[in-house]
Amino acid sequence: MTIANETLADWNKLDQALALASILPCCGSARWARELVETRPINTETELLERSDVIWRALSPDDWDEAFRSHPRIGERKTATATAQSVEWSRGEQGGIVRSSTEIRAALGQGNQLYEQRFGRIYIVCSTGKSAEEMLADLQRRLHNDAHTELRETVEQQRQITRLRLRKWLDQ
């Protein structure tokens, strides 16, 4: 099978450590990255996304939490565990926050605090293309979820973020 993407072709040739470092910013879970690297060669974008999804869904809650911790809070710029690439992507993904009012940003900050108190982790949302008002409405809705429902929703939001970042990674 012909590999249609130069980034993917080059990644398939890297040693394991370099391949891990290259792919980790797309998700933030070391186990996800390790298991994805171990499935190489990957020949197409579709194959990459499908393998990523299968691995992501099979991870433990601790692995998911590791990925969640790699994100800054909505409206913030960095986190202690994020890679430089992840921070750059987050900045672009959260573009709707920059254009929002002071009141909306304050409400998001307050909502983030309530969310963390309720669920013990930061609020994760696939923010690409969403306005700050949309994210605030989503945050307020999700504050009413039970813990199990919210974990499932957070896992799905991270899956969507990972897919977007994998596509960005392929376009480098």
Share of helical residues: 55-70%
Number of strands: 0
Count of alpha and pi helical runs: 10
Provide the β-strand percentage band. Answer: under 5%
Task: Tell me which oligomeric state these chains represent.
Answer: single chain
* Mean pLDDT across all amino acids: 88
Please summarize the sheet with the most strands. none
What name goes with the CATH superfamily? Oxo-4-hydroxy-4-carboxy-5-ureidoimidazoline decarboxylase
Overall description:
This protein is an all-alpha fold. The chain has one domain (6-170): Oxo-4-hydroxy-4-carboxy-5-ureidoimidazoline decarboxylase (UraD-like). Helix content is 67%, strand content 0%. The protein contains ten helices and no strands. It has helices at residues 6-13, 16-23, 30-38, 45-58, 61-69, 84-93, 95-98, 102-119, 132-142, 147-170.
List keywords for this structure.
single chain, 172 residues, mainly alpha, UraD-like, 67% helix, 0% strand, elongated
Topology of this structure?
Layout: H1 6-13, H2 16-23, H3 30-38, H4 45-58, H5 61-69, H6 84-93, H7 95-98, H8 102-119, H9 132-142, H10 147-170
Helix pairs in contact: 2-3, 4-10, 8-9
Brief summary:
The protein is mainly α and 172 residues long. The chain is 67% helix and 0% strand. It is elongated, with a radius of gyration of 16 Å.
